[in-house]
Amino acid sequence: MSDQRMAAVRDWMADEDLDALLVSSRPNVRYLTGFTGEGLLVLDEGALICTDRRYTVQAGEEAPGIECGTGKSHLECATGRLRKGGHARVGFEAPHLTCESHATLAEGLEGVELVPCGDQIKRLRAVKDEEELSLVQRAAGIADAAFVQWREWLEPGVTEREAALELERLMVVGGAERASFEVIVAGGPNGAKPHARPGSREIVRDELVVVDWGAVFEGYCSDCTRTVVVGELDEKQREVWEAVREAQLAGIEALRPGLEGREVDAVARELLRERGYGEEFGHGVGHGVGLEVHELPGLGSSSEDELRPGNVVTVEPGVYIEGWGGVRLEELMAVTEDGGRRLTRAPYDL
Amino acid sequence: MSDQRMAAVRDWMADEDLDALLVSSRPNVRYLTGFTGEGLLVLDEGALICTDRRYTVQAGEEAPGIECGTGKSHLECATGRLRKGGHARVGFEAPHLTCESHATLAEGLEGVELVPCGDQIKRLRAVKDEEELSLVQRAAGIADAAFVQWREWLEPGVTEREAALELERLMVVGGAERASFEVIVAGGPNGAKPHARPGSREIVRDELVVVDWGAVFEGYCSDCTRTVVVGELDEKQREVWEAVREAQLAGIEALRPGLEGREVDAVARELLRERGYGEEFGHGVGHGVGLEVHELPGLGSSSEDELRPGNVVTVEPGVYIEGWGGVRLEELMAVTEDGGRRLTRAPYDL
In the predicted model, is pLDDT for residue B223 greater than 80? Predict the structure, then answer.
């Protein structure tokens, strides 16, 4: 698999007339080599993982066919290799290299043209192969099952933080490597913060609770949100919840290859606007998911990323009302030849 | 408190003849403002947190005295503010700004001199004030207490991953915001990887288990390592364990203001060399800890960082033998006027 991926990168390097490429994004290094530790990847006529002694055993296990080197720093190891190559043009990942590292690289490679490259490897990663899709599906299945157990466990009086950790624990016991991000459990007014961190506030009966969670399985992430209540919904809560659910279903229904991300966003956004909540939906409707929990394509209101079969994206409209709380509902979807396929299947029961 | 910190940064900006500074490191933004969300900080005659609607409620709560803005992106918001300022020289954090963001900034600020700055704010952060020291101490106390409970719970047959999560759970129940990094539980041969990720391997009787864990309390991290056994040590295990413990005690004893990081490293390294394990100690003896679990000063073999009272550092020699396993013992220490003070107090019982 990694051979195909390497080949795609080398084709692109040839198109760009690059003699070598420094890969500094950690998920990109993993995608191309399987190595999950800290380090850099040099692609020239061969390939070299530049790491340190904390990770050399691991690199040997995870990327058995690829040479591994160490140096005073990862960057010095990479610079040494690149200098020896006598290259004319060396590409680097502009979104994933700091100005400081760039200065160090430039100093070590005097006379070499350093070519700023965009996120080509991340763009390759946006289209998942069958193996990747099945890993995301496994992650989603673990997360779904954990949620069902957690929902039975949840009761008023536990803190958001305890509740978040219990959901994480259930995922790990269920086979997850870890949570794909810090689980969000946001009760009552905390639900008005889309990225609330679970705190010492207790779950209160009849309050909305936003739950946003995901699992990692062999490096691949899932991402899902439900908004639940322990007790009963009042009229306003139900009205908002149902508006968000309608917007989400409209977004899911809209998914198909060829659409731009912003077009999916617009469908959900328009529905919330009609229901009177256009102003309260302050983020994009979704994003790609894979080795990272936020990746391409973007499904924000200005995203021109075109959907393609093999994309894995979230559809997650929300309504956030300061002082009152929030509702967000998120599904993880695979884009297929003719629409979308649900990867998360956690129940929507209230 | 944040006023004093801001004043220190503004003094430095004046020395460097900077009209404004773009702060892009998230812990640096937090250190100066209290804001814990995603965003950038512009310091000019005033201060502006540039974020997005996911975080505006939170920014208002966490950084009440500081202006908060949004834009098409955090960087566009910051660029807009800086452009209006009509500044001659604008500093940026070269270790914390990507080449891509720099290019965007340069495009938006034509005619402005962009000045690459080092990690001045991180250097300020290396010396903790009393409040910070007490937060680190709280984090360490929570982690210690969790470890004692965990040690009683641990038994052969649980997987590394379950064991790591249980230790995290105990920290959270004990009052931690979260673990300060992914807890490491590495049994048997896995102990040979200093940054092993806990996997599906079970804890086996009479095998060494490296446990590296820490808590976060109000943003501040602790960091501690013990190597334990469920059962009995054999002669080789005991010999390695004791060599590491001696090296650690020597490093702890050596701590005092004025020393360079590498000098502390050398003390522990020399002791392991005498015991015949010089080659098996493949990382630096320690690092600073604070809002991040790895910060300044460095205590690696080439670190010229000078220790100062108020530093919080780890002392953590280790011996790693491929195929056999490893031993690491780590204490978190505050550097005082005349030496060091232990912050972690987890027992060393085997």
Answer: yes
Q: CB-based contact (8 Å) between A102 and chain B? A: yes
Write out the two tokens for A234: 């009042």
Q: How far is CA A280 from CA A240, A260, A276, A318, B90, in A?
A: 11, 23, 9, 8, 35
CB contact under 8 A, A98 and B100: no
Asked if B161 lies within 8 A of A177 by C-beta distance, the reply is: yes
Task: Give per-residue pLDDT as tens, A57-75.
Answer: 889 999 999 999 999 999 9
**Is residue A131 within 8 Å of A207, Cβ to Cβ?**
no
> Under CATH, domain A2-124 is a member of which superfamily?
Creatinase/prolidase N-terminal domain (3.40.350.10)
Instruction: Please tell me chain B's helix, strand, coil percentages from 3-state DSSP, rounded to the nearest 5.
Output: 40, 25, 35
B54 close to A (CB below 8 A): yes
Q: What is the pLDDT of residue B122?
A: 96
Q: Is B96 on the interface with A (CB under 8 A)?
A: yes
**Domain boundary assignment for chain A:** 2-124, 130-342
Class at the top of the CATH hierarchy for domain B2-121: alpha beta
Picking from A294, A307, A295, the residue whose alpha carbon sits closest to that of residue A336 is: A307
Q: Is B130-342 a domain of CATH 3.40.30.10?
A: no
In this structure, are residues B24 and B117 in contact, taking their beta carbons and an 8 Å threshold? no
What does the pLDDT read at residue A219?
96
Record: contact B100-A94, CB cut-off 8 A: yes
For A308-331, the pLDDT digits (tens) are: 999 999 999 999 998 999 999 999
Give the global pTM. Answer: 0.86
